[in-house]
Amino acid sequence: MPRLALYTLAVCVLAIAAAVVSFARGSWLGIVWILIAGISSNMAWYYLRKARADRAADHESTGAAG
Hints:
Blueprint: H1 3-24, H2 30-65
Helix pairs in contact: 1-2
């Protein structure tokens, strides 16, 4: 798993935890944490798909040359 995907996944989990705590305390600031979790989740998926596509392109280029 790419390092950036792991970092963004960690941010997503922490943002969800912060949102839960925020809503439990009665604060509406949790909405901001939910938005941050959504953005970081999308970034994690992007980096995972990018790494998968890069691996497939490398495999295809080395397979075609050999």
